[in-house]
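To whoever is covering the structure queue this week,

Two jobs came back overnight. Logging them here so there's a record in the thread.

Job A:
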Amino acid sequence: MWIDSREFANTQMKIQVISLVAWCLLAPSALAQVAIDVEVALEPGVPITAPQQWAERLGKLGLSRVQIRSLRGDETPLAKFNEGQSRIQVVAILTSREELVVPQGRFRTSDLAKLREYFEQLPTILAEEGVERGLFGLTVPQMKTVLADLGRPVKIATAEMNVRDLLDHCERRFQLPIRGEQKVEAVLSVDIPLVAELQSLTTGTALAIALRKSGLTIRPRQTPTGELELVISDYQRGREVWPVGWKPAGSPRQAAPQLFAALTVEIQGYTLATALQALGPRLGLPVVRDETILNSLDIRPEEIAVKLPRKKTTLKNALDRMCSQARLAAELRVDESEKAFLWITQFGPDSRPVGGR
């Protein structure tokens, strides 16, 4: 997955400061103390036994007060804080079909568990009104907290290192906790050495690359109590996960100008792997292979011969032509510190730029 770093910058510009202040004032510990008063307004035609039955159901949900009354004119469902933000007033409409209609919800008699969850989340829902969220459903301050960890540089050599060891190294330096979903520990216990040297990259990009090799991903998450954590889980297509690098905020030429300088290139008698190694000093940036894609397609750069006739071109064009001979592409990406690197992969559902190029 390839996410444009400008998407995060735009979120920073859009965030509403007043709403963020309100959210800070309503920390999760404070939200837990908010009292909820519910007035159930009855539509005409409600069965005669329904009001008492709904009063009993609502009485089991830990609400501060429940009142049953008739509908007033064209009244609609309502939920709002009082001035001190210590109580929430809710107006729910009980329809003739015995459905309880609240803001952003409609519940039948069999939905008591869902209704309980709604009222538990209502203080947070109201507190977040007006707060814009970006990637992973996080606010800008939350994303900055995440980047404080995932933007750290990798401090150790990673080639031949076990994925579990790299994760442990990063976790010791992080402020945020790392949680593993079910079956993750069993996967990480398998000795899977890394091929790539990731020492020059940031921990977010390095972990995304390393975990990808094991069929795992990492993503930030806000817990129900409002805390942030990093979650390791199985890869699932379509799920938002921390990307292997980001699209450069500027043009590719700005991110890596050396790739676009004119030079004469001739390649003969090289495999793709040896050609990339030979061009390394001129590239001046890390070259990382997508081992997951290469293994799944049985593409072996050490065995694939590449050839380019003598021609004046650019490094980027030469790279593209070489990689295409192996059914691959050389994507220019940046890590969380805007450091450029080349990602040797193949376009497809599991490695597709967001929003095109």
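Job B:
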Amino acid sequence: MTERAAARTVRHEGHWFDIIALFVMGATWGLQPALVKAVVEGGIDEVTGLTVTLAGVAVVFILTLVVRGKLFQVNSWYLRFFAISGALGYLGPLLVAFAVAEHISAGLLTLIGSTTPVFTVLLAFAVGIERVTARTFLAVAFGCFAALFVLLPENALPNPEMVGWAMLAFAIPLFYSFDNVYIAWAWPKELDALQAAAGEVVVATLLLLPFCLLRMDAQTFDGSLTRGWPIIIALVLATAVEVYLFFYVIRARGAVFASFGSFVTIFAGFLWGYLLFDEQPTVWIWASVGLFCVALGLVIKPARAEQWDQP
């Protein structure tokens, strides 16, 4: 663990609350694709939808900061932190997703995205911001096998031409991994989870705005935003919960633990499918859930994790 990170670490005791937070974060993250699909099918461009969503989340966070009396003055160090984390967490993955979306399936893209914990563990180990043990690597391995069980059979590459695009898609989990590790390493200690989340979302919205304006046309404001406001509000609220808990979990338990939210998201998607569309889970899904439980048990068993103050 680096001197810089160690200076901000203390013993954290909210063990079960952190686990619940991880699951809620993954569940809300898993709900977002369905909401995004509904927004897009309503005639709203993906970039416009994301920008509007983040702007709504920014409003929610700022109002919450006002109510709680936690508005803060932005300095150059904070601005750099927000800009880098916003670029790594939103702008970079979005650009890569648009580049590969027409060449590989959504399922394969999800499978590739589920490798985020692998890269996060490797980066955390290389940088030294967390204590990474053989147990951690084993947990990641079980998580990856769990994802492979349910995603690989239907998303294998049908032809060699997709290999290059699939390799490019691995930039998405790389971006997320760098974002996880960078946030854990560079987090300004004066900011709590809500303040950090608010700052990143505001700056990420500003980063996406030029791309949103470039893709806009006369149909963007043909009433789609007005007609789809209930879904957009639901997406804003789900995203606000997910983003806040992401920052909370990173501060409470570290980048590696937070990265396991990508595994939770996969199974949350199946849960939402069962609850909303009565989609019955297969034996492979149940086997995958068992593997994931083993992975989570390995990564959360230590009761004395050296992490940051509670937000």
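Note for Job B: Residues 135 and 273 are 32 Å apart (CA to CA).

Please reply-all if you pick these up so we don't duplicate work.
Q.
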